[in-house]
Amino acid sequence: MKVAKRGLVFVLILMFVAVIAACSDEETVEQEVIEEYPYVDQELTTQILEDGNVDDAIVHLMNEEYLLVTFVGNGELVEEDAEGLFDEYTPILKEKYPYHYVDLEVLQDNDVILEIQLFPNEE
């Protein structure tokens, strides 16, 4: 009887340890994804590209405080067009990344047409 109780206690301890290990692994995986910088916000990048205003774009989450958004012009962008891009995407970026410093830049033929910085919302 003592052997059976010890065996049962041993099995319960193993199960408890396995559950804790499984939970720890899940948290570790989530932390690794969050800590993997730079991270591309594929959803927002795809949205910008589907809008068709630029040839290329990328939204890079560089770290937990800094976001770099790059628009690449379609060969005919001028400064007014770049300002229009900022006007269009600034509210989206501020909503999605309210506590990040954001650099938005518009490139045309490897030259920066316009660059603007957004600062995080203050609590």
Characterize this entry briefly.
The chain is α+β, with helices and mostly antiparallel strands. The protein has helices spanning 2-34, 42-51, 79-96; strands at residues 39-40, 56-61, 66-72, 101-108, 111-118.
Task: Itemize the secondary structure elements and their pairings.
Elements: H1 2-34, E1 39-40, H2 42-51, E2 56-61, E3 66-72, H3 79-96, E4 101-108, E5 111-118
Parallel strand pairs: 3-4
Antiparallel strand pairs: 1-2, 2-3, 4-5
Q: What this model shows, in words?
A:
The structure is a single chain. The protein has 123 residues and is an alpha+beta fold. It has 2 domains: 1-36; 39-118, Alpha-Beta Plaits (2-Layer Sandwich), CATH 3.30.70. 50% of the residues lie in helices and 25% in strands. The chain has 3 helices and 5 strands; from the N terminus they run αβαββαββ. It has a 5-stranded mixed beta sheet, covered by helices on one side. β4 (101-108) and β5 (111-118) form a beta hairpin. The longest helix has 33 residues, at 2-34. The chain is globular and about 35 Å long. It starts with a helix and ends in a 5-residue tail after the last strand. It comes from Halalkalibacter wakoensis JCM 9140. Keywords: Signal. This is Lipoprotein. Residues 1-21 form the signal peptide.
